[in-house]
Design goal:
With 285 residues, the chain is α+β, with helices and mostly antiparallel strands. Strand 1, helix 1 and strand 2 form a beta-alpha-beta unit.
């Protein structure tokens, strides 16, 4: 069964038991869950998988409606809402870029006084850098600010990500990805010393504990700076940028199958030692 925010093609529909189109951006998670229950009828799904950023809270609500284990609604919100996410991370004493929540009364001058220049302007909930802008002067900050978005301190460092499978609080696989060219080119696994990897792994564990992640595939983005590691954001869904393809090339297992198994309460069998190095370069139109 597919719960989606856009009508699937006839080819996709032919592979489904059924589908329903809902507004995944809506705060009405109960309505999404009820639509899923009507769709499934008497069938109870074995698991609920969120495949996109916007579907993470909705999937948690559907999971709850069917009485299934997995990421709960509170944790899903923290994995989706960058403001709640940053509050929990900062509250746990984890280094995090300072931020300002933009509303109707927020002035560009106040944002720059607090965060400096350049400053990052981004939607409160998005993925893959969608909508993210780098403002280098007060005038650009003023032009790009939107109520409900956030302004974020610019961090000077090397950005990377950690892709991980976690079951019952135990990390089964932790894979580092180097952003060779941020947003466009990635290398997996990221080259680093054993000491650096131990530091990154410990940082990753602290983030999962702070957000209460017990069972999920996660995509954590961090900066490695001269002053140490800095949290950027984390998603509770499969990563984009073809990183799932790289994972299959590097480790030799099907990560999509592993995600399905994980959401069905299984301990998927994962290869944790990299067999090779793989890279991807996204060519945008």
């Amino acid at each position: 069964f597919l719960v989606t925010d856009r009508l699937p093609s006839k080819k996709v529909q032919a592979t489904l038991r059924g589908h329903v189109v809902v507004d995944l951006d809506s705060e009405n998670l109960l309505g999404v869950a009820e639509a899923a229950q009507r769709l499934c009828g008497r069938d109870v799904p074995d698991g609920v998988v969120a495949l996109t950023e916007k579907s993470v809270p909705a999937a948690a609500a559907v999971r709850h409606a069917f009485g299934l284990a997995g990421t709960d609604v509170e944790t899903a919100r923290a994995l989706h809402d960058k403001v709640e996410m940053k509050r929990l991370i900062s509250g746990a004493g984890i280094a995090c870029a300072d931020w300002v929540v933009i509303d109707q009364k927020t002035s560009a001058e106040a944002v720059v006084r607090r965060l400096g220049l350049p400053v990052v302007i981004k939607p409160r909930s998005s993925s893959g850098g969608r909508g993210t802008l780098l403002a280098k002067d007060v005038a650009t900050v003023r032009q790009t600010m939107q109520p409900g978005w956030i302004a974020e301190q610019f961090i000077d460092g090397r950005e990377m990500s950690i892709e991980a499978f976690t079951v019952r609080g135990r990390v089964l696989l932790r894979s580092p990805t180097e952003y060779f060219v941020p947003r466009w080119a990635s290398i997996m696994p990221a080259p680093m010393s054993g000491e650096d990897w131990a530091e990154v792994s410990a940082f990753h564990d602290r983030v999962l504990r702070a957000l209460g992640v017990e069972r999920s595939i996660t995509h954590l983005e961090i900066f490695r700076t001269a002053r140490g590691l800095v949290f950027v954001e984390i998603g509770g869904r499969p990563p984009g940028g073809y990183l799932m393809d790289l994972m299959q090339l590097v480790y030799g297992f099907d990560p999509w199958e592993a995600v399905l198994g994980l959401e069905m309460g299984e301990f998927p069998t994962l290869m944790t030692k990299a067999k090779t190095t793989a890279g991807g370069w996204v060519l945008h139109p």
